Amino acid sequence: MTPDSTYEKVAEFAATYGLLYLMVLFAGVLVYAFWPKNKKKFDEAARRPLEED
Length: 53
Hints:
The chain is mostly helical and 53 residues long.
């Protein structure tokens, strides 16, 4: 096994499974952000900068 073929295998693995990992992570963030239970928390956080001290 040459070092070039090892690098190519690692690069292919990282490109394939890295993409899948990021897609799953992105889907998880979307689910968290749009989960109905979190609406009140996000609405309060959105109004916080407009409140006076």
